[in-house]
Write a structure and sequence with these properties.
It is a single chain. The protein contains seven helices and nine strands; from the N terminus they run E-E-E-H-E-E-H-H-E-E-E-E-H-H-H-H. The chain has about 210 residues and is α+β, with helices and mostly antiparallel strands. It folds into two domains: about 10-65, Phosphorylase Kinase, domain 1 (2-Layer Sandwich), CATH 3.30.200; about 70-210, no CATH class. The strands form three sheets. A five-stranded antiparallel β-sheet has the order 1-2-3-5-4, covered by helices on one side. It has a two-stranded antiparallel sheet with strand order 6-9. The protein has a two-stranded antiparallel ribbon with strand order 7-8. Helix 3 crosses helix 5 (about 165-180), helix 4 crosses helix 6 (about 185-195) and helix 4 (about 140-155) packs across helix 7. This is Phosphotransferase enzyme family protein.
């Protein structure tokens, strides 16, 4: 059995300790996590840094318990500086998009995380590890980069966020690593349909990305 109190909670799921070395992530709305588990297993087999999956059963995903802060926490405490954080995000994108898609017959298609931001990167002793693959799909890598920029910009344009200013700095540093962001309109449309914010806030974030390009 796992502990009654979650180790962590996100927008759609809670994570519970299962002994010292494993966790169970449980989706609150039910569903089936097998496709996500299969993707993570594929990526791990290709050498991409994801948690090892042990079991997928309905809404429950049992996997390795990772030790370390999220990249967001490391940026806030100063354990990781802004430029290094941006480079970590850009490098994780580059490594992911260097792999062929698992299912698509299109040779240009790649696996897209579509939620790759500092809260979904764990900084472990073995290096950064990417978590939360529930939004993943296959397609053009430019969409994935645009989504990361957009999500960071959402924080940068939030007047209530205590980390709005450093998020703006992170956005600028990320764009310096990636170069021009393409498919921003497509990312904004997808984020409006699937994300937590209303269309006005998403539009503000997209405008910030364009402004950050200079």
């Amino acid at each position: 059995m796992f502990a009654a109190t979650p180790l962590a909670s996100g927008r759609c799921a809670d994570v519970y300790a299962l002994g010292a070395d494993r966790v169970i992530r449980r989706n609150r709305d039910g569903g089936d996590v097998r496709a996500e588990a299969e993707l993570m297993t594929y990526l791990r087999g290709q050498g991409y840094p994801v948690p090892e999956v042990f079991r997928a059963d309905g809404p429950d995903l049992e996997m390795t318990r990772l030790a370390g802060p999220t990249l967001a926490e490391a940026l806030v405490t100063g354990a990781t500086d802004i430029r290094s954080g941006a480079r970590i995000l850009a490098t994780l994108h580059h490594r992911l998009h260097a792999l062929r898609a698992r299912l698509s017959p299109d040779p240009a298609a790649r696996v897209l995380h579509l939620d790759l931001h500092p809260q979904n990167v764990m900084v472990t002793a073995d290096g950064p590890v990417v978590i939360d693959w529930g939004s993943a799909r296959e397609g053009r890598p430019e969409l994935d980069l645009a989504m990361t920029a957009l999500i960071v910009a959402e924080v940068a344009t939030d007047p209530t966020s205590p980390v709005a200013a450093p998020a703006g700095d992170l956005l600028t540093a990320f764009l310096a690593e990636t170069g021009p962001i393409r498919l921003l309109d497509s990312a904004a449309s997808l984020r409006t349909r699937t994300g937590p914010l209303d269309p006005r806030r998403v539009a503000q974030a997209a405008a910030r990305v364009r402004t950050a390009h200079g």
